[in-house]
Here is the input.
Amino acid sequence: MASFAYSAINAQGAELSGEISAADLNAAREMLRVKGLLAQTIKELSDGSGIGSTTIGGKKVKPKSLQIFSRQFATMIEAGLNVVSALVILEEQTDDQALGTVIYELRKDVEGGLLLSEAMARHPKVFSRLYISMVEAGEAAGILDIVLDRVAFQIEKQEAIRRRVKSAMVYPTMVLIFATLVLIGMLMFLVPVFVKIFASLNGQLPTLTAYVVSVSNLLRSKPYLILLIPFGIWAFFRWKKTENGRKRWDTIKLKIPMRIGDTVLKITMARFSRTLSTLVAAGVDIIKALEITGQTAGNWVIEDALAGVRARVHEGVPIAQPLLENEIFPPMVAQMVKIGEETGELEKMLSKIADFYEDEVEASVQSLTSIVEPIMMIGVGIMVGIIIISMYMPMFKMLTLVK
Here is the structure.
């Protein structure tokens, strides 16, 4: 969703101006037409316009804060409060400054005549398309409280998976950083001490020692080469954000050995199933639900596959058939979806798939952690051991050189 500034003429001939969020320029023009406005000028706002910004004083809206907001909002709507009254209370009691500012803007927009979903669409960096579409469906069906509660549940599940993955990555990352610093320290400061001893003995160094000394001399003469490490990391993440980089990296991730690719697929399947289940339960049209699910899948391969599924479903084919035909989807997913379609309980079956894969993700992450930890330790030992051995190999010749 992008933000557009517009000037338009209403049915009474009065000129109005404001801002609107839409997928593109044509969609913005159509939204104005639906509202009975004739667009005069429409201009896309840059990211610096402040529309949809999640940062207030350097702070971002936390997923946990958004989850609490959604849950409390649902409770208040269920209790009979109108949207404006609920937003006033939520604005006063939230501890998240950035979210408080967003709620304030939501309240102003709703008081100004916008629907809640339209007001949320003005903050695309805070409220995802999934969130906005569900609120829109909830408003249309009169079940806003139920939808908001489902959104909170969705956020909770996604954050649970993200926390598991992050916690599993902390230890290997710290070990890798420590090992890299130790390796650089030894090459920069320890190896030169031994080099002076070897030089005074005028002996020929073993091949392994000669290689290590060459690397040490290179780093000492050109220390700026060390910066290639953080630069390489930065370049990698920058490349990942490009369209071509995202496609290639998402494809590579699914093929990484040692169960890593399998775990990535399980995470994606859990997200796909949970998102589609949530959208179907909210009453979102299945074509639109598949489109949103693809965009929020978190992996280009799945996104591309779901685009094909959506096209087939649009032709009248059941969802399960293109899932069965695409090898990226595990057979269990397709079979469960098929049962759900045949019994009219697609939402329940998708929810069961999501529960299954979320449990599988937890087991896989624990298994990966138990595998990665010893591998990392062995790797650190090999790196340090190579340098130590290369330094002590000439010592075995020391007595001969002295004689």
Observations:
- The two ends are 79 Å apart (CA to CA).
- Residues 56 and 98 are 5 Å apart (CA to CA).
- DSSP finds 17 helices and five strands in the chain.
- Residues 46-58 have pLDDT under 50 and may be disordered.
